[in-house]
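Bifunctional protein FolD: structure, please.
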Amino acid sequence: MTADVIDGKAFAAGIRARVAEGVAAFKASQGFTPGLAVVLVGEDPASQVYVRNKHRQTLEAGMESFEHRLPADTPQADILALVEKLNADPAVNGILVQLPLPDHVDADLVINSVSADKDVDGFHISNVGRLGAGLKAMVPCTPLGSLMLLRDRHGSLSGMNAVVLGRSNIVGKPMAQLLLKDSCTVTIAHSRTKDIEAVCRGADILVAAVGRPEMVRGSWIRPGATVIDVGINRIETPEGKTRLVGDVHFAEAMEVAGAVTPVPGGVGPMTIACLLANTLTSAHRSVG
Ligand code: GUN
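Here you go.
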């Protein structure tokens, strides 16, 4: 059996096209352009790539993009002052502080200094709480994009067994909340989980978000399951080149699963598409 490959790249392009239409309509009716501000502190290479892509795709969607690049040794107080300025700026509808932040910065403090109304990442404690309570919330972009791919494949997820591998605040926990809201039976598995392979084998839906290259092998996957691979890991090949791989062994998964997201071209493009969608939503909310 060969699994279907879920084309996140094409799906994300569709979302971006709809966002661009929404932005054009917003400009026509409100007379201003929605804006997204991104704050990048330091030189983390992966973050630089993400921020560059965000900038380009924000402009392509017809929105304003405000980039703030600060040196790695920027004092925390300066970062907080910048966030305050962006909170007060009516041209800025969404604020994203790129993670990870340097060690001398209290990331929780910075994340929670972003106005909850402009928190397009959905990381602010009030959005986290609202999501957990089943209230309207800004939802973190990677789990939201993953959910869209799952709904597109299955329609209703009700009653399905979902296993989320990883318990991060950015992906694992909000992913579990979203799947629960869609009436899945949800298990969060992590580094201390006993017999993690058997737990994963019970999954109709397996979401891997652990940041460990190719950890999920074919034998971990229930035949016919849908596998969402959130991992983006750069590994060195025997020839000394680098290659992007997910948290799932793609070739083995293709032999067992019903559907698999590739890396790259699966969840990755969905994250930025959802960020743009969240920014447009935030712009709509700002005008009532
Ligand atoms: N770093 C890795 N993923 C993300 C994300 O979704 N948002 C932010 N702000 N930083 C990240």
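Notes: The two ends are 51 Å apart (CA to CA).
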